[in-house]
Amino acid sequence: MDGAVEIIDQTVLPKEVRILRLHTVPALVTAIQSLAVRGAPALGVAGAFGVALAAQVHADDPAALAAAVERLEHARPTAVNLARGVRRVAALLPQGPAAVLAEACRVRDEEIAASEAMARRGADLMIELCGKRSRLLTHCNTGALAAVVLGTALGVVRELHHRGVLAGVIASETRPLLQGARLTAWELGRWGIEHRVAVDSAGPFLMARGEVDGVILGADRICANGDVINKIGTYSHALGARRAGLPFVVVAPESTVDLNTPSGDVVPIEDRGSAEVTPWSEAVNPAFDVTPRDLVTAIVTDRRVIRLDQGERP
Ligand code: MRU
User: What are the UniProt keywords, alphabetically (predicted)?
Assistant: First the structure.
């Protein structure tokens, strides 16, 4: 990091691959809030490097440094990774900018290693649950864009493709910002994985009609009781999967497991306001929802498989 944090601007994909070089914490906070950088693990890494940036920019101004760290920590409220990444790296501030940067690099490297571990473990589980020619439905974007490399749920999808046991993917479009239609479809296309996009409301019907063998998606926060917070629309897919008797699998790194949050009803759900939904009316726009633990078959992390359907808890 030479005085800037570099990100791929996810707001302009798939039309354009644009790299943003962010030289200030306010610019990074704006990038986080506009979803130029998004996805729980990527937010943790962005927050970590944001603190490293702040440590360089405000080396001689402790009050400005503290304010910058505070702004980063609260830039978005729901994914636990952001606040966690910020706080972890900020703990090194008394040791100076070099120590802070080294810790930020460790946060990034751990997420990279976590993606690889989740892909292997998740693929083993999906073969066990869905068989050797599975058609999977996924929601939002959980690929390399959301997790630095490879991804969480989408990393598992890619691993299944490499093992030759994937029979197709449905990416639900993910209203209103279309992370599925724009980002997941783009990543699957680059990986050469056969896929189709479906409107969000089609998911449960496609499951009922027998066109899906399992649902696999990510999380922004996993609560101590197993409740899963993820992109709005996750809960409907979980209900559809339960009704159709399909496995519903969540893939997320340990950095997304938040044992300090007892259950989903106390998680702050970001409300992104009307403009993203419709110009014609006031809208209600919760960016995330809570999927109760009893609808989740299993959670795969980089260290374990938690079988909620067998009574296990995070
Ligand atoms: O609002 P976003 O796009 O940041 O929401 C992201 C999601 O909900 C993802 O599904 C989740 O972070 C898992 S990312 C690996």
Answer: Isomerase
